Amino acid sequence: xxxxxxxxxxxxxxxxxxxxxxxxxxxxxxxxxxxxxxxxxxxxxxxxxxxxxxxxxxxxxxxxxxxxxxxxxxxxxxxxxxxxxxxxxxxxxxxxxxxxxxxxxxxxxxxxxxxxxxxxxxxxxxxxxxxxxxxxxxxxxxxxxxxxxxxxxxxxxxxxxxxxxxx
Length: 167
Description:
Elements: E1 12-17, E2 21-28, H1 31-40, H2 49-70, E3 78-82, H3 95-102, E4 106-111, E5 117-121, E6 127-131, H4 136-146, E7 150-153, H5 156-166
Parallel strand pairs: 3-4, 4-7
Antiparallel strand pairs: 1-2, 5-6
Helix pairs in contact: 2-3, 3-4
């Protein structure tokens, strides 16, 4: 829905960040491509927020370098949706000076609840519930430190409201 509400000329990219951060789609106006990639995302272990911001900034830098040649450079921003707690890779706070230097604000959405759990396949079959309480503090620090804005959402309807505001 978020992507559907963006102007057609708006470039959107996608970075996945579980155990590592990976640019799945560099900035593009092909919104359908980004949506297809979003639908293919899978829950996995680890959260690499700092690495994700770094990968996003590098993707924006590459795109901007190409756009400057054609005269189409535009302002950029990063939107991070997470439960808010980096567990692997570069700490979240280490991404703040990178974003400030690039002059790219990071808008964050802490998605989840204090009692949040996810069900993962159990080691011996079945499933097991793993606690994943939301940690909005690190995301708020990231947003405020880069000139972005921090949001929280505990439900899909609240997340849609955040997306409407961001759009």
